[in-house]
Amino acid sequence: MIVAGFGFRKDASLGSLTDAFERACVDVMPECIAAPDDKAIRQVFRLFSEEIGVPVRSIPADLLEQQSTVTQSLKSIVERNIGSVAEAAALAAAGPGAQLMTARHISADKLATCALAVKEKS
Question: Which of 5, 20, 57, 94 gives 20 to 30 Å between its CA and that of 47?
Answer without folding.
Answer: 94
